[in-house]
Design brief:
The protein has two domains: 13-159, 3-Layer(aba) Sandwich (Rossmann fold); 166-245. The protein is 18% helix and 35% strand. It is built from four helices and 15 strands. An eight-stranded antiparallel barrel has the order 8-9-10-11-12-13-14-15. Strands 3-2-1-4-5-7-6 form a seven-stranded mixed β-sheet, covered by helices on one side. A hairpin with a 2-residue loop joins strand 11 (194-203) and strand 12 (206-211). Bound molecules: S-adenosylmethionine.
Length: 260
Amino acid sequence: MDDEDVPFITTPDRVTVAMLELAGVGPTDRVLDLGSGDGRIVITAARRFGARGLGVEIVPDLVARSREHAQRAGVAGRTEFRVQDLFDTDLSGASVITMYLLPEVNLKLRPRLLALAPGTRIVSHDWDLGDWQPDRTLTLEVPEKAIGREKLSRLHRWTVPARLAGLWCGAQGTALRVVQQFQQVSATLAQGGEQQGFSGRVDGVRLQLLGAGAAAWAATAGADHLHIDAASAGLPLQVGQRLRPAVDGRCPAATADAAG
Ligand SMILES: C[S@@+](CC[C@H](N)C(=O)[O-])C[C@H]1O[C@@H](n2cnc3c(N)ncnc32)[C@H](O)[C@@H]1O
C-alpha cells in the first residue's frame, strides 16, 4: 500500500485542457502536476501546448503507466515522471503548478506555493486554497465526471504575488508602508509630513494602486526594489524611480534614489 494522501481519480480530458488554458500554458512553460496519476495533465501540456512537464506521483504503477503514455503520445523527451511524495518535491522549477488533490492537502501546500517566484501560476481542480482567493474560477458541467452528484468541475487559478509587505524608501524622504494580504495591498505614501492612502492589488510582480480623487500609481517588483511605472501628477513618485526596502525598519530622511 502506497502512502497516498489523495485517491487516484482522473481529471476528465476536457477539464485537463481547460485547466491548462486557464493557466495560460505555452511552449516556454514548465508544468508540474502534483500527484500526477496516469500523467494526463503533463502529457497534454506537452502534446497540445508545447510545454515541458514533470509529474510526481507516489504510486509506482501509475508512474510506469504515465511513462508509457508519454512514449505513445510522442512526448517522452519533454516529460518526466517521478515516483515521489509531493511534499518532498522541489516546486521551484515550475512556471505552472497543477493539482487535483484535497482541500487539506492544498492548505498544507499553501505556504510553499506562496513562497514561489512571483508570477508562478497555480491551477487547482475543484479545491481552493482557503482564504487565498483565486484570481479566476471557472465552473464546467462535466456529465462524465466519476465523482460527485453535481457533475461539475470548478477550476481555480492563482498567480503567486510578489511579497511587498513592509516599508519602502524613495528619494527626498519618501516612505511607502505596504500592508499585504495575498493579492490585496493597501499602502500609505508619506513625504514631508503629508500622507496619502492607496489600495489595490498585485498581479505577480505588477502592483496597481488607487487613492483619493484620481490619484493612482503602478510599479513592478524587482528582486530588491519597486520600480515606479506610472504615477499621477502631484504624487511624490517619479516614473523610473526605484524604491528600496527600509534598513532597520526606517527610511533615511533623504534616500539617494539609485535609478539604475
Ligand atoms: C485525484 S488524483 C489526480 C491525478 C491527476 N493529477 C489528474 O488530475 O488526473 C491524485 C493523485 O495524487 C496521488 N498522490 C496522493 N498523495 C500523494 C503524495 N503524497 N505524493 C504524490 N502523489 C500523491 C494519488 O496517487 C493520485 O494519483
